[in-house]
């Protein structure tokens, strides 16, 4: 009987996919198809949850099949992340787009990412204090929750790496290994390696123009093929979001969410306020925040459902270049650095809130100016090297709590609501990277404002 019910659920998903495909055939806009998929996924997943619950064999079996579409789409995106980062940055050198301002671009992108993370930390502190979360008590159950194997491995990993060592890990020692994404900091390492290749190309071009021209043609050809692959994958976005959102709503632990509802609400209030900060920064740059929201929503929606900044990278770059008028070089720098440096949600708001929550149990006044200033600085510095995948916030929190000498058991308590909060955090991370790219492009004069002002979203 269970097998039959699983087949029924699979058929329903296939029918929903067919409906989205028909919308595409009728040339319904990309953004409308994305949000239709989001809504259908929420409804379908909630129905499965309502009928079977989260642990029933039918739910588990159905989701296992749904993951072929959802996780398969994410894997395809991750497949092109490293080739896209490498070839795009090298291509920016061969097209003479980064030769004059590479130092300024790097400084601005990293500075904006770290600066906004510091602001995010301050907002997280304010939200935790405003909702009265600083009075939490770590009981025995909380301590037991912190002793699960996943958290213990994370604690060991964090304690074994000092902050200087963490910064050192950003540098590539084996670029071919990093091209496989083997390390959490592989993306930044590939960016650095690609920059070296680009600078080397400029030297070859000066001394041997013939070889330089030949190399540039090879890079341009590979870039064209890579972008074609990216376009093919991005067309699958509505189907991937449908499957992912169905899984999320079908398997979420609503009882745990209700129990920790105050923290969830406080987190989303902080995330929303920080998103408003992004819009204010764009406003100060004389750019329409409404236009940013309208054009950026499909990308932010995918980040929200997938919970992976790395998997969202092709969309992040596409939105910057095609929708916002950011130059290719800056878009790749901002998108790539935004994966592991200065993530506003995972490395900014979340660790700051947790530190405020556990400070009283360590005998520290979380409202003292010295504690707040120190925490903001630690969060900003510790945001270097946070992995751009689901779970990166856990490592960021462990690093901050360890540096501040605060109890880490709180991380175990919140694991049950991690997926729900991580959705908003990931969307904010991506928004931070896109905002950094737009502001940097505007500051360096490599910004096509007419593209930004165009009302229509470029289709994937």
Automatic annotation (TrEMBL):
InterPro entries in UniProt: Na-dicarboxylate_symporter, Na:dicarbo_symporter_sf
Annotated transmembrane regions: 6-22, 34-52, 72-93, 105-129, 185-204, 265-285, 337-359, 371-389, 395-415
Keyword Hydrolase on entry: no
Keyword Membrane applies: yes
Location of this chain's protein in the cell: Membrane
Pfam families, A to Z: SDF
Membrane topology, record value: Multi-pass membrane protein
Keywords assigned by UniProt, alphabetized: Amino-acid transport, Membrane, Transmembrane, Transmembrane helix, Transport
Family as reported in the entry's similarity comment: Belongs to the dicarboxylate/amino acid:cation symporter (DAACS) (TC 2.A.23) family.
PANTHER family in the record: L-CYSTINE TRANSPORTER TCYP, PROTON/GLUTAMATE-ASPARTATE SYMPORTER
Designated name of the protein: L-cystine uptake protein TcyP
Taxonomic path: Bacteria, Bacillati, Bacillota, Bacilli, Bacillales
């Amino acid at each position: 009987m269970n097998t039959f019910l699983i087949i029924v659920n699979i058929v329903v998903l296939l029918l929903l996919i067919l409906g989205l495909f028909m919308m595409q055939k009728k040339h319904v806009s990309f953004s409308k198809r994305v949000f239709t998929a989001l809504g259908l996924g929420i409804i379908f997943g909630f129905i499965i949850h309502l009928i079977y619950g989260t642990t029933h064999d039918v739910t588990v079996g159905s989701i296992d099949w749904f993951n072929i579409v959802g996780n398969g789409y994410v894997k395809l995106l991750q497949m092109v992340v490293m080739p896209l980062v490498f070839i795009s940055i090298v291509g920016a050198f061969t097209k003479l787009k980064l030769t004059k301002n590479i130092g300024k671009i790097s400084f601005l992108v990293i500075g904006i990412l770290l600066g906004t993370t510091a602001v995010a930390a301050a907002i997280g502190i304010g939200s935790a204090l405003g909702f009265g979360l600083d009075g939490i008590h770590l009981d025995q159950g909380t301590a037991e929750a912190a002793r699960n194997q996943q958290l213990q491995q994370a604690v060991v990993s964090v304690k074994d790496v000092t902050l200087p060592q963490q910064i050192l890990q950003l540098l590539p020692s084996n670029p071919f290994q990093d091209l496989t994404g083997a390390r959490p900091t592989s993306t930044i390492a590939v960016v650095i390696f690609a920059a070296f290749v680009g600078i080397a190309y400029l030297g070859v071009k000066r001394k041997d123009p013939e070889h330089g021209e030949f190399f540039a043609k090879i890079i341009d050809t590979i870039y064209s093929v890579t972008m074609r692959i990216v376009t093919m994958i991005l067309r699958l976005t509505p189907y991937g979001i449908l499957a992912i959102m169905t899984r999320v709503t079908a398997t979420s632990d609503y009882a745990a969410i209700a129990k920790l509802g105050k923290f969830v609400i406080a987190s989303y209030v902080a995330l929303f306020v920080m998103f408003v900060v992004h819009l204010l920064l764009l406003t100060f740059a004389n750019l329409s925040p409404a236009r940013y929201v309208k054009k950026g929503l499909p990308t932010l929606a995918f980040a929200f459902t997938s919970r992976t900044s790395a998997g969202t990278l092709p969309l992040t770059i596409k939105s910057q270049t095609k929708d916002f008028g950011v130059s290719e070089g800056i878009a790749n720098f901002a998108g790539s650095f935004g994966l592991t440096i200065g993530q506003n949600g995972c490395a900014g708001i979340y660790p700051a809130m947790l530190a405020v929550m556990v400070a009283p149990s360590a005998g520290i006044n979380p409202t003292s100016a010295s504690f707040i200033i120190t925490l903001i600085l630690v969060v900003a510095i510790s945001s270097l090297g946070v992995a751009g995948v689901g779970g990166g916030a856990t490592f960021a929190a462990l690093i901050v709590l360890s540096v501040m000498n605060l109890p880490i058991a709180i991380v175990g308590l919140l694991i049950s609501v991690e997926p729900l909060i991580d959705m908003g955090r990931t969307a904010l991370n991506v928004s931070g990277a896109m905002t950094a790219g737009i502001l940097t492009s505007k500051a360096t004069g490599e910004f096509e404002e007419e593209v930004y002002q165009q009302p229509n979203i470029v289709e994937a």
